[in-house]
Amino acid sequence: MERWIVFFEKKCIVCHSCEVACQLQNLAFPGDQLRWVNAWATGKFHKASQRRISTACFHCDDPSCMSACPVGALRRRADGVVEHVIEKCMGCKYCLQACPFGVPKFSPNQRVIRKCSFCIQRIDNGKEPGCASKCPTGALTYQPKGALAQDLKAYGKPERLHMVYALENEPENYKLPVPVPGNVVKRFQALKWLAGLIPGGFLLFWLWRKEEASGGKNE
Q1: Is the Cβ–Cβ distance between 152 and 6 less than 8 Å?
Q2: What is the reported pTM?
Q3: Shortest CA distance to 17 belongs to which of 108, 169, 45, 25?
Q4: Which of 16, 33, 89, 141 might form a disulfide with 112, Cβ 3.0–4.6 angstroms?
């Protein structure tokens, strides 16, 4: 069974309870933030409104971070959770550079990368993730079984992200990339391989020309 966390903007009161719960459940040092709440005021005077979002790892269906990690410290589970195995992490920051959402953060305290791991220490024991369990309004809702509701309109749902966002405005207004990016590492891997062949091709051509020239002199 796949698992999901849904953020409902209209229910969020920007209380930051999810941030605190996330820090405590994951033993994160002060400053090593794994979930963050942002809010923006829009409009003027009596027509003013507020946009708000609680952001963490998107738990992508095909994660760029996992493709970029050279030591297997990131792995995608069958339930859709992209787990970070902190014991394997060497803090190389490749995942940080690869993530199109800018989610992984380097911890100067632990010298490793930190990111949301969906509170696997809780969900594997039948509990809710820390953020959802402490949200007083249900703005963060944990759905542990099956697919999302058919009528739910949320950023990332068609792309099978496992942290999705039911927003009141367009995703661009929350600094979310549109369209939802896929695996950027795999997308450019073939180009990188081709680019790597170019210097080798020039070297082989130079050696061939050199050999041809020396052969002519010997004759």
Answers
A1: yes
A2: 0.81
A3: 25
A4: 89
